[in-house]
Batch of 2 targets.
Target 1
Amino acid sequence: MKENTLDQAIEETKQILREYRLCDYCIGRMFASKLGLVSYDTLGKKIRTMIKQSRPKSCYLCKNLMLEIDVFVQKMLDMSKEYEFSTFLIGAILQPSILDRDDTIRSKFKLKGIAGIKSDITRELGKQFGKRTRTKVDYQNPDIVFTIDFKKDQYDIKPKSIVLEGKYTKNNRGIPQKQDSCNRCDGKGCFACDFHGISEFNSVEGQIAKFLFEKFGAQQAKITWIGSEDDSSMVLGNGRPFFVKMINPHKRKIHLQKKIKLDNISILNLKPISRIPTDQIKFRATVLLEISTEKDLHPDSLNVLKSLQNMPISIDENSWKNQKKIYDVEVKKILNRSFVVLVELDGGIPIKRLVSGPNVEPNISTLLENSCHCTTFDFHKIILVK
């Protein structure tokens, strides 16, 4: 430290302290950058000793906030003890009067290159909290974010959501894919549903969510489905892909088995990813359909179904029209008034309407000239298409 630079800082400090009573931290903050130091408190004490001025009971600038840093850090430790994290970020809300006083002093005494008091408070909090928890500040993608409102003496902690991808299989019939929302809060989360947004767990969604609540300590699980099936449908083979975003997870470092068996479903290859794809997700499915007919069947009449292969399938949904394709059709079994067919098709084709006909052209009923009804359909393979 150059002596003349320190002497200059002392003289400038004397000018400031003639008008304002400041704590050691605020004194040091004014000159640490100029003197090439990082410990504001240590520098402030040294300058105060050299000018022989006693410490004030209350700092004009920060109102003793900096003297209570340990108290704030302890509250952050108490708040975060139930969370797993390796990175964090701190935001602060200060009283406007503190910010105004800081600006006034810096402007009045032409103190350039000094960070604002808000930045320095969060920096000091981060420094001490990181040291106590052996974690570090991350400005881009922190595991948890603290918000401290010094105006209202309120503290908030928000963990980063965890996003997973996986697949599920369903080997039993009678299990719905989606879970009804809590009827009291309509899925927003309330005391009645323990803030999960759902109050029962008797569906694919419910079982996946319950597992994630218990495993990760998450509050809610928002699932993005890749296609859908009926309650009576089974999902076999490699399973149906899905994405899930976990809200307010308490745990992050969880070992996940490649196959997780739940009550009526299995979850396969569940793993964390950075984000849910924002583009439209396309997929193909291989589906086994059981179809009943109004009139008797002749085996040769089913040959016409081969014409569906690579033929554009037009789907009319009132306000929009869409076209999909069927890639393969294979008749597996024929009875008097029913048959079983295996089809490979684009995701998004309404299976039952492909059979019976409303707003889907061409359809099986029209091709056979026989009124058809899909009794069940099961998914044997589902693949994502890039």
Target 2
Amino acid sequence: MDISVIPNIKHTQADNFFLLAGPCAIESEAMAMQIAEQILKISDTYQVPFIFKGSFKKANRSRIDSFTGIGDKKALEILKKVGETFNIPTVTDIHQVQDATMAANYVDVLQIPAFLVRQTDLVVAAAQTGKVVNLKKGQFMSPESMQHAVQKVLDSNNELVMVTDRGTMFGYQDLIVDFRGIPSMREFATTVLDVTHSLQQPNQSSGVTGGRPDMIETIARAGIVNHVDGLFIETHYNPSEAKSDGANMLDLKHLEQLIKRLTQIRVTINQF
């Protein structure tokens, strides 16, 4: 997929990786606008195509008392305002068939969560909106098996599809990234590496997912070296107080230097 088909995406001629970045979940309008504005400045500085990410709802929760959102329509309206205010594309996850047409009215890319990527009705519903569909690789799936999820989108008369690796289960409470999967998936789809979710430590006895944000740059660098098309990074200006996935998010104050170093690596890699 040529990412230039995504509405309002910039810097597509820069021969750079593209970036899906933002908070895990939409917590408020002020929070979303602040994060989007700061990432946009960084992406403009380093000529990185940027899609703002924010979940309008979090359905995959370990505990019933975990934060799930501020209200579907309210969060979607915020995503729409972010897109219109900064003239940038936006992406959000969907969890149920009826979410597809609803969210498609507000965002440019529909994302299928890793736990749900084998749900045919959900994938087809997303594809039938005509929006770009981002398929997160199941933690339980091989890279090669993702071609079947991609084919479901293609068979729904939608060629706007990409896949995102977010790690593979390693025992009960850890994930690993098998970088052999990047060239394998790039054979059949534009491929993104979800850096922050790959560093989760799920299934903790507390019911709150842990993480290793200290390894974010390590994973991101390896993705760029292995020619990944895009990076997915969740970021927040105060991860310790984020309402979802704070344990593995990147502190926003570190994003610019990370992107600077990654774009420098990309320049080197483009020579080979």
